[in-house]
Amino acid sequence: MKNECLLGPWVRRFLLEHLVAERNLSRNTQASYRDTLTLLLPFAGAQARRAIDQMAVEDLTPTIVRRFLEHIETDRRCSGSTRNQRLATIHSLARFIGARSPVHLAWCTEVRFIPFKKTAKTLIGYLEKAEIDALLNQPDQRTALGARDHALLLFLYNSGARADEAAKLVVSDLQLGTSPSVRILGKGNKLRMCPLWPRTSSLLSAMIRGRGRNEPVFLGRTSQPMTRFGVHRLVTHCAKLATRSSPSLIGKRISPHTIRHTTAVHLLRAGVDINTIRAWLGHVSIDTTNIYAEVDLQRKAEVLAHSNALYTRPTTENHWRDDPSLLAFLRSL
Predict the structure, then answer these.
(1) At what angle do helices 105-112 and 80-100 cross, to 10 degrees?
(2) pLDDT the model gives residue 312
(3) Residue of 33, 126, 157, 292 marked active site
């Protein structure tokens, strides 16, 4: 068996040559691709009854790939979205091999014909103003650790940063002068600038006093840099405590990403332009940002109230054209 027919060297080239050298994908994306292959290769080897290092490309048959996807959903109890994410990695691997090895074009085509499963679109969760205030009030700001926790929660709400972005923040990323702002390195190694509220700037200034430019902004209990898991644990812990003062939080699944969604919805309610929100959150496409207009219940309630008022008024032809307030509202939608 020639080396170019073995699957192992192709996997190595895919991970190192394609993901890193050619695409320069983020570490988290690389880890997602790697994790898929970590699950796939042992499963495929067992199905094909071959040692992993002896598997040929054609041993990864479409039938085995379909069984793997079924295993993901049935045995591992993953969602349809996770199943589609794993399949996207396999499609990408097949495309990489097929583009560089004409011998494997037929195999590549068969694998890439495996369709994605249609899944229900889940509505994003966000917090109302009273709920986010209850969350922010949980840390005891009289202690150093509580002050850090409050500053971190406020920073997440102010910037809409992801947990990983907040954990990797260093002192040099903060500009706390007359126009406070923060530089955030996001997905795909894309940089964005976000303004900071005076309250956020004040808390961060006090917390980083005396630190070097390259030191992390948020430190853990042992003065080591916080991780995204530590940020997630802090948010869930404070959310659990906040249910005592805000019962509406009971049953809600709250994470750092929930705060990110909350930031977007509250900016939208404040009248911030959708393109500004897109840049604020670091979205590539405006379509991603538009989902916040779909989930804003307050906005929908306003539309309902105005539509009810329109329905109950005396019916005259084009009477809405003579109502300046209603016309202005409709133009704002």
Answers:
(1) 160
(2) 60
(3) 292
Task: Spell out the alpha helix ranges (H) of 113-243.
Answer: 129-136, 144-159, 163-167, 198-207, 228-242
pLDDT digits (tens, 9 = 90+) for 130-178: 999 999 999 999 999 999 999 999 999 999 999 999 999 999 999 998 8
What is the model's pLDDT at position 107?
96
What pLDDT, on the 0 to 100 scale, is given for residue 286? 79
User: Which tokens go with 120?
Assistant: 């229900």
Active site residue 33: no
Catalytic pick among 71, 187, 252, 269: 187
**Alpha-carbon span 174 to 155, nearest angstrom:** 11
Positive/negative CA dihedral, 144, 146, 148, 154: negative
- In the chain the beta strands, taken as DSSP E runs, fall at 174-175, 181-185, 191-195
Q: Known catalytic residue: 187?
A: yes
Which is catalytic among the residues 148, 257, 261, 266?
Answer: 257
pLDDT digits (tens, 9 = 90+) for 40-59: 999 999 999 999 999 999 99
CB 172 within 8 A of CB 213: yes
Active site residue 121: no
Q: Of the residues 104, 260, 266, 278, which is catalytic?
A: 260
CA angle 304, 305, 311 (to 5 degrees): 85
Query: Are 146 and 139 contacting, i.e. CB atoms less than 8 angstroms apart?
Result: yes
